[in-house]
Amino acid sequence: MAVSKICAWFGIARRSAYYKPVKAEPKVQERFAEPIRKMILEEPSFGYRTVAGLLGFNKNTVQRIFQIKGWQVKKRPIGFRPRVKALPSVATGPDQRWATDLCRIWTGRDGWAVLALVIDCHTRELLGWHLSRSGKSKTAESALEQALIARYGSLGRVTAPFLLRSDNGLVF
User: Three-state SS across 98-152?
Assistant: First the structure.
């Protein structure tokens, strides 16, 4: 049976019956992959730029290895998040508006740590902070608890409502 007749029956082009892919499978050099894998296991939140910078590798090489091996950090969801309703948000006195934020700090021997801060926007006073090896929601919660205890003496009910402002990070 001729190949052209079989292709006509199935409704495909004759040349597709002869096609063989010529592109080789992507190869990963283990001298790059092994240190990258170890660093990801130690610090799973690191992206390819941080890994490349700490290991001294080319960021394009590290990104390509992330893609081939499927080690990409999960993307954050796209969409609207709740925003602060009070505009303009200006504190005219203490305890009206607090601000929170997270930052990552290189601690040397212990690696990266996450620092959560809570400040009073009127007095610029640091009310609470918490330093943690993980950036989980408990870090932000502990900083806020410390701020409430420092300002009000306990975790009981707050007498006057106030506004807590954040940059809408995932842990808040």
Answer: EEEEEEEEECHHHCEEEEEEEEECCCCCEEEEEEECCCCHHHHHHHHHHHHHHHH
